[in-house]
Protein 1
Amino acid sequence: MDVKEACSQIELFQMISEKSTAALEACGSLRRIPKGTHLFWDKEMNQTLYIVVTGFVSLYKINSQGERKTVFLLGKGDVVNEEVLQNMPASINCEAFESSLVLCFSKMDFLAIMRQDFSLTKAMFDSLALKNRRLYRQLKNTSNSLHGEKRVAAKLWRLSKDYGVSASDGTLINMELSVTYLADMLGSRRETVSRHLKHLNEQGLIRSQNGKIVIPDRDALSVFFKSP
């Protein structure tokens, strides 16, 4: 895949001018990120904007107790680090959740194109707004408002919405989602999440399949975690 083909697959670029598209193709580059490799670190000065083409990357923070908390899991078409457009250090760590391909743009080049194309500028605002909405949902689903199995169910429902593909027996969350990583996303202990997953399996709300998770009925899972 070359830069032109990669740009054509990014929804963010579908409404911008042909001139802007050509400029992005001219200044962009592609980078393959092996699983577990970091794109950037928290508090690191960075001058590159990243957009996921294939695979998934994880944005996470380390709390004062040294525990890892995954904030976002980003996939195809997602802008990784809009905040790079500020002249400030990164505010989060970014690691490849699986082998991934990302588009790379110099911050200054990207800003220059944004100045000439309001559609691109608005698309970046929309990307940030979507992240804000996702953060609001995460706050709603903290341990103070949802507990135990319902938090796990809510997270799996969301992942099935964002990254699910149709399967013969339901909706497959199309990624290798380990118990450890799910615990990181929820800020919970691995053992606790494992127990909740077992209970959800026993209730028929989820099903494990070759290391991945299938949701037989997303509506039923939604009713479960929204119930009093």
Note: Helices lie at 3-8, 18-27, 107-116, 118-140, 148-163, 179-186, 190-202, 218-226.
Protein 2
Amino acid sequence: MTTVTTRAVEYPADHLTMVGHLALPAGTDRRPAVLIGPEGMGLGHVERGRAEALAELGYVALAFDLHGGRYLSDPEEMLARCMPLLADPDRMRSIGHAALDVLRAEERADLERIAAIGYGTGGAIALELGRDGVDLRAIGTVNALTTGRPDEAARIRCPVWAGVGSEDPIMPPAQREAFTAEMQAAGVDWRLTVYGGALHAFHHPPVDHAAPPGVGHHPRHAQRAWRDIVDLLAECLPVTQ
């Protein structure tokens, strides 16, 4: 086990003061960096834990914020904020770029080796950074098969991996087909993994508050999806000691 250090980082975005979670691996050298986007509820212990797990593997990792330091446990409040956000690519890109600027400002981040991963709304933001032409080494998403504006996927310059539950009512087969058609038409190096029997947000441990319909944890697939993301990073963004 390596020694990981963490700190909260405040930065402005979307007319809010965001509070991200930065995790750094042991040492003082530059390391590949990963931006982590949370589910629509916002930055919580799950995403903080994933940042720290990636730091254990040798990455500089920043889990970014969506709601100005708040975690939206009320599904109605979460949807009221996230649905307009998901319908506004420029706004998503602005939130993503603000977080990316924080990650790039970290002196231990290798600016030539950055990836973006995300879940739900955070995954959609990762994809929009790619569609905006950001120089990323990889994009990995779970539950985020969003499609962009015509032809903008052609600006994605890295491999894209996406995971989705087969029984996800929010990302049904038609949405999968639209996403894969967009990636294929753009010539993106893409992969889609469908996890049999899984619902939306299957990767997220059970919560102690109400959740939207169609959401449910699937422990085995949650572990598999995490391994798939780690494998993507190892392929596209290897850590060299």
Note: The radius of gyration is 16 Å.
Protein 3
Amino acid sequence: MPRFTELRVQSSPAVTRAGRVLEGFPFSADAYHVAALFMAALPRDYVLDGASLLTLQCGPHGDEPVYQRFPGASVVCVDPFDFAAHADSDPATRERAVLALIEQHGLALIDRVEADPAPWRAAAALVRAQGFQREDEVTRLGRALPGRAGWIRVYRGLGAGVGERWQARVLDRGGAVIACHPMRSPAALDQRDWFNRSAWEQGVFVVRQRLGEAVFTLEPPSATGPGSSWMAL
């Protein structure tokens, strides 16, 4: 059975008004990092109901059933949901509320489809223990510096206010960070396909997205130039 790979927390179509976010408050973007943190904490081989994507749709759902199963995707309706109270809460309270929503409605679905609840509960507990933030090294993108003088290592961070943040850090031979370069503006967006693979190309560190386009480059200091720092191009 296919494993569960993506979780979304969104407002219902009745609230989004034909695709628009709730007026004055970007609900889906604000909740993004909590869902991403939960998925990072959940075992990669976890099987839910056979769908790879679960969307928790908050707000009125009209005559739609509470649970719908489509090819490859499932939708659970969360109604009622008080958007005004949620938007007026502080960020920490909103994080806790979104995680509680994920835990509660996920476990209800798990009970319905007879999946294993233990990993779901453990993932929620880990997100809380991590303080709703984490940073992971993306080892497949790391590369040794020319001449084995150190390394370039890439990190994906998740947290409130940034959603998802990617950084390339240059380390010397002893492991000390000597430069840190943002790879893209932080966003409430899964960018793992955007930063898909890396290589040294004609002396330049290049990261490419899934379709092959170069999306980030980092050039070592020139021996004939200032040579005192690394430059992100």
Note: The mean pLDDT is 91.
